[in-house]
């Protein structure tokens, strides 16, 4: 179902909102005046702890794109994560590879709304927050969610992303 607020969103964010609605997610996509491209910018715009920001990072593992949803307070230890996840070496995807895998640009990658579902890890540190915020397809759109909801939406695996 469409609403005036939904129709005013950028195309990529409307796709994310549709995925969320189809999955029964109650949180609505919001477009903010401020940039949410980085976790620090998002936390400032939303007046929340940087740890409550779910960064969507795309890596390549054995030439396959994978998604890591990490707390804004963490840097991913790729060696440790690959070992815990049982995957080959993880390396950061280029901006072109991110767009190809997700249909979205770096700084606005959502956990959903991609051409195909990506193997996904959800940082266990996100469970420390009753509400977290994730990008919704552009650097100025976000939606509220929870770690358990992200696990369900992405069919993800809950793991520590730091050593």
Question: Care to describe what's here?
Answer:
The chain is of the alpha/beta class. It has 6 helices and 8 strands, in the order H-H-E-H-E-E-H-E-H-E-E-E-H-E. Strands 1, 2, 3, 4, 5, 6, 7 and 8 form an 8-stranded mixed sheet that branches. A hairpin with a 5-residue loop joins strand 6 (132-135) and strand 7. The protein is globular. It starts with a helix and ends with a strand. The mean pLDDT is 93.
Strand content: 15-25%
Cα-based radius of gyration, to the nearest Å: 15 Å
End-to-end span in angstroms?
A: 43 Å
- Outline the biggest β-sheet: 8 strands, mixed
What's the tally of helices? Answer: 6
Say how many strands there are: 8
Residue stretches low in confidence (pLDDT < 50, at least 5 long) are: none
Shape: globular
| Mean pLDDT, all residues | 93
Helix-strand pattern: HHEHEEHEHEEEHE
Briefly note the structural class of the backbone: alpha/beta
Binned, the helix content reads 25-40%
Q: TL;DR?
A:
29% of the residues lie in helices and 23% in strands. It is α/β, with parallel strands linked by helices. Strand 2 and strand 3 form a beta hairpin.
Descriptive keywords:
8-stranded mixed sheet
Q: What is the topology?
A:
Elements: H1 4-7, H2 11-22, E1 30-31, H3 39-46, E2 53-61, E3 64-71, H4 78-85, E4 90-92, H5 95-102, E5 120-123, E6 132-135, E7 141-145, H6 147-154, E8 157-159
């Amino acid at each position: 179902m469409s609403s005036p607020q939904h129709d005013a969103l950028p195309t990529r964010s409307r796709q994310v909102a549709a995925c969320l609605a189809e999955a029964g997610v109650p949180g609505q996509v919001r477009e903010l005046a401020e940039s949410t491209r980085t976790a620090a910018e998002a936390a400032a715009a939303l007046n929340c702890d940087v740890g409550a920001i779910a960064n969507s990072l795309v890596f390549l593992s054995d030439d396959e794109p994978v998604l890591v949803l990490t707390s804004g307070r963490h840097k991913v230890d790729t060696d440790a994560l690959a070992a815990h996840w049982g995957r080959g070496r993880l390396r950061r995807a280029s901006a072109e590879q991110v767009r190809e895998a997700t249909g979205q640009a770096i700084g606005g990658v959502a956990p959903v709304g991609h051409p195909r579902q990506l193997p996904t890890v959800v940082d266990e540190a996100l469970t420390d927050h009753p509400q977290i915020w994730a990008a919704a397809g552009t650097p100025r759109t976000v939606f509220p969610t929870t770690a358990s909801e992200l696990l369900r939406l992405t069919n993800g695996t809950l793991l520590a992303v730091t050593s």
